[in-house]
Amino acid sequence: MLSSKFIHAFTRQIYHTNLITSATFNVIKKHNSTHTKNDLVLVDVNDKTGFSIVTLNRPPVNSLNLELLSAFSSVLDDLHKNNSRGMILTSSSSTVFSAGLDINELYKPDMDRVRKFWTSLQDCWIKLYGSSFPTAAAINGHAPAGGCLFAMCCEYRVMLPKYTIGLNETQLGIVAPTWFMATMKNTIPLRQAELALTLGKMFKTDDALKLGLIDEIAENKEDAIHKCEIFLKKYQKIPQTARALTKQSYRKNDIMELENNREADLQLFFLAISDPRVQSSLGKYVAFLKLKSRMKPILEAVKFLKGIFKSKKKKN
Ligand SMILES: CCCCCCCCCCC/C=C/C(=O)SCCNC(=O)CCNC(=O)[C@H](O)C(C)(C)COP(=O)(O)OP(=O)(O)OC[C@H]1O[C@@H](n2cnc3c(N)ncnc32)[C@H](O)[C@@H]1OP(=O)(O)O
After folding, report:
1. Helix (H) or strand (E) holding 52
2. What is the rounded distance in angstroms from the CA atom of residue 179 to the CA atom of residue 253?
3. Which residues have CB under 6 Å of ligand 1?
4. Where does the UniProt annotation place the signal sequence (predicted)?
5. Distance between the two ends of the chain, CA-based, in angstroms?
6. Which one in 37, 123, 270, 308 has a CA-CA gap of 20 to 30 Å to 212?
């Protein structure tokens, strides 16, 4: 049997090499809720179960910028220090879990800031994927790219109907880092992962369930959280150290691969985003997202008018 010394050494290696000590994101304790100073990440601890509901709270779409990632990283440290019994990751938006990385961090970046940004993303992934506490995602909206990554880092995923999830990077003309790919390989069958990654495929909820990218479908957010709680409760009967060590051993190679190559990964990222073709793709994508957002009222008006015509036709 593996000793608890090993698990502590392993967890220490994961946490202590990457601790973010940011005064800006000190956590304020409020009753059983903790909020980061700027409320980018909300934490509510359920007194009965001991589970923490961690809510990404950066409207409108929870795009992951430096500040949100730093706040999330601090929250993960806190849960680890407090020996959390389990975490449920969700979103305060009613339609988006997370839109993935904030494209504005990648497009025409400030090099000093983008270094901190990428390092923070690495931190979050290492801490979430390798967490000693069990995790589940209540995916209450779309989860493209980085949003899908964080959901896949959790051991269990419950998603609401009619949303989409996937690693869509190739569609943007960018390559998902190897640790994004490793997380997907750990979640769905290898061949399906290769197809999903190369196509940059976004899966609707039903298809994601068939593929095993998610584990359950819920009717609404409350139901999703309830289903995550049922999953986390299963671990209450399992000795904590054995569970944590098994999870971390299972994911160890992926984590060590990044741990041992953080600077190389950062340099590869710099190289990729410095490529004029990548910048051109990102520029077009930013413009497309902005146009799509501005067209929304027009598209909704067209939809509304179509509805009126249809109902009039039926009456006649
Ligand atoms: C071999 C290894 C090599 C390694 C090289 C590394 C290279 C770099 C790798 C980087 C990996 C990247 C990971 C990512 O996560 S990239 C981000 C991908 N995300 C997306 O494609 C999602 C885009 N967004 C959407 O599809 C929709 O917004 C969404 C479905 C999420 C929600 O739709 P909805 O209709 O509700 O909202 P709007 O589209 O109207 O958006 C509202 C406003 O939000 C802005 N927005 C949306 N997404 C983003 C984003 N990701 N970043 C920044 N801003 C975003 C959008 O523009 C609207 O803003 P405005 O109203 O101001 O126009």
Report:
1. strand 52-56
2. 10
3. 60-61, 63, 95-96, 99-104, 142, 144-146, 168-169, 172, 174-178, 268-269, 272, 289-290, 292-293, 296
4. none
5. 76
6. 123
Residue 19 bears catalytic tag: no
pLDDT digits (tens, 9 = 90+) for 89-140: 999 999 999 999 999 999 999 999 999 999 999 999 999 999 999 999 999 9
Q: Which two tokens stand for residue 98?
A: 């997370």
User: Ligand 1: which of 56, 58, 61 to mutate, most ligand atoms within 8 Å of CB?
Assistant: 61
Superfamily of domain 4-274: 2-enoyl-CoA Hydratase; Chain A, domain 1 (3.90.226.10)
Q: State in Å: Cα 2 to ligand 1 middle.
A: 43
Dig out the tokens for 121 from the structure.
Answer: 């993303």
Question: What pTM does this model have?
Answer: 0.90
Active site residue 169: yes
ipTM over 0.95: yes
Residue 212 known to be catalytic: no
> Measured in angstroms, how far is the CA atom of residue 165 from the centroid of ligand 1?
13
- Please report, as a single letter, which amino acid is at residue 191: R
Q: How far is CA 69 from CA 7, 10, 11, 133, in A?
A: 26, 23, 20, 19
Query: Which of 141, 181, 133 has the alpha carbon at shortest distance from 157?
Result: 141
